[in-house]
């Protein structure tokens, strides 16, 4: 699971409407998988990312070099864009769990794929 995907999912358990984003990682096994660099895509994605959630997720995974804010010159700042590229597109959680901070529901991740299916009573 790429961190770009993680930045867009929240808990969907019935009546879990607060403090359900971002899901926190537990027992995460991270792998870096090379991806094609596309600065135009990154520039277009920046406004769609929840930057604070991304920073918190990175710290959970032991990645501590993410800037606290998006620089004003982000579109022209190649070093920043390459760092974002590495973080959201090349950092994959291969195994582990995502846990909701509100209801504590666990979403298992196996072979890089999160299981977001719910039991009937959770919908």
Automatic annotation (TrEMBL):
InterPro entries in the cross-refs: Trm112, Trm112-like
Molecular-function annotations in GO: protein heterodimerization activity
Pfam family, one: Trm112p
Domain of life: Eukaryota
BP-aspect Gene Ontology terms: rRNA (guanine-N7)-methylation; tRNA methylation
Family the UniProt entry places it in: Belongs to the TRM112 family.
PANTHER family registered for this protein in UniProt: MULTIFUNCTIONAL METHYLTRANSFERASE SUBUNIT TRM112-LIKE PROTEIN, UPF0315 PROTEIN-RELATED
Protein name: Multifunctional methyltransferase subunit TRM112
Source organism (scientific name): Absidia glauca
């Amino acid at each position: 699971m790429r961190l770009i995907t993680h930045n867009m999912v929240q808990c969907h358990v019935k009546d879990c409407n607060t403090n359900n984003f971002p899901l926190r990682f537990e027992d995460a096994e991270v792998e870096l998988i090379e991806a094609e660099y596309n600065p135009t895509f990154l520039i277009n994605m920046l406004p769609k990312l929840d930057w604070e959630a991304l920073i918190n997720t990175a710290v959970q995974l032991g990645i501590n070099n993410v800037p606290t804010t998006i620089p004003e010159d982000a579109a022209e700042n190649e070093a920043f864009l390459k760092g974002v590229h590495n973080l959201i597109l090349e950092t994959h959680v291969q195994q582990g769990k995502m846990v909701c901070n509100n209801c504590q529901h666990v979403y298992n991740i196996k072979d890089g794929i999160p299981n977001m299916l719910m039991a009937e009573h959770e919908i």
